[in-house]
Amino acid sequence: MAGAVEIPMIVYLMGGGAMLFVLLVGGAVMSFSGGEQVKSRRLGTVTKRAKVDEVKKKESGIKVIDDGRNAKGLDKVIRKLLPNPNLLRQRLMQAGLETTLNQYFIVCLGVGVFITLLNYKVSGLSLVPSMLFGVGGGLGLPSVILKWLIGRRREKFLGKLPEAMDLMVRGLRSGLPVSETIKTVGAEIEKPIGTEFSRVVDDLQLGRTMEESLWRCADRIGVTEFRFFVVCISVQRETGGNLGETLANLSEILRKRRAAKLKIKALSSEARFSAYLIGSLPFVMGGILYTLNPGYISKLFIDPTGITMLSVGGTWLTIGFATMAKMVRFEI
């Protein structure tokens, strides 16, 4: 193409290194959140005692260990590539998907090939940068979508959980056993609450205990509030007491907890909007300048001073994003 400026390969390599550094900095800031660590420790302390009896029961039964020796074909390749395939399988269940690891791997591969061809054929990049973008997109885009699906499903579950507890309280006060109230919730409440409670009923019909069935459901959902619900039922079955009153109190606590979260979200909306607006300005203005005068802005990608400016600016922009995200995130 006449007048087009050829960008050296070193620019792509330096840009990829800067992007990797930015992602590592952002991930490190997010992963060392004190609130998440405190919540995990508190939840582990609360649920440890409730799981002791279930562990003892499972130790006396027959265990089937999946060590990967019987894996064949694509399963064997996935087990070698993924350090912990069970974690990915659990995330797929938490998203409410019936997708297997093979299907997820094929989707990632298809997304990567599509992005590679798009950059190579349409954008005119060379093969190596196109493959780098393809690998990043094939691994990152499905993971981002999966995380979004998990968050959306958890929000729906939390929104209906107090209503499900109220329905169980009315059933318990009328004299129904716990298993029947769970069956009623599975039939009356819409998904994902109804779907998960129906699975609990199916597990009970297959011969599993109440605690085991509820903990399996808690692992599929991954919601802290539901683990509190399971602990209440487990402790009541061991020590006795008025389960209806306990669930009614827990339902009220969950409603207040959700109301506080929504209030915090509303109060921090201005800061979040400012972060989105300020963060998008460099990319929007860069796109406008590239459209109007490509030769003018292309010096940033060719001149060493411009490359240094882009790297420093991208690093500080990511640090600012991480700082603002931590400022508007509160654990209740």
Can I get a quick summary?
The chain is an all-alpha fold and 332 residues long. The chain has helices at 9-31, 34-59, 74-81, 85-94, 101-122, 127-173, 178-188, 193-205, 210-221, 224-239, 243-267, 269-292, 294-297, 299-302, 304-327.
Description:
It is a single chain. It is built from 15 helices and no strands. The chain is mainly alpha-helical. Among the domains are: 7-41 and 268-332, no CATH class; 155-265, Receptor-associated Protein (Up-down Bundle), CATH 1.20.81.30. The longest helix has 47 residues, at 127-173. The radius of gyration is 25 Å and the shape is elongated. The chain starts with 8 loop residues before the first helix and ends in a 5-residue tail after the last helix. The model is unreliable at 1-5, 24-38 and 46-69 (pLDDT under 50).
Describe the structure using short key phrases.
mainly alpha; elongated; 332 residues; disordered N terminus; 15 helices; Receptor-associated Protein
Low-confidence stretches: 1-5, 24-38, 46-69
Could you tell me the number of beta strands?
A: 0
The CATH superfamily of the domain at 155-265 is known as Type II secretion system (T2SS), domain F
Q: Would you tell me which CATH topology of the domain at 155-265 applies?
A: Receptor-associated Protein
- Write down the Rg: 25 Å
Would you spell out the secondary-structure blueprint of this structure?
Blueprint: H1 9-31, H2 34-59, H3 74-81, H4 85-94, H5 101-122, H6 127-173, H7 178-188, H8 193-205, H9 210-221, H10 224-239, H11 243-267, H12 269-292, H13 294-297, H14 299-302, H15 304-327
Helix pairs in contact: 1-15, 2-10, 5-6, 6-7, 6-11, 7-8, 8-9, 9-10, 10-11, 12-15
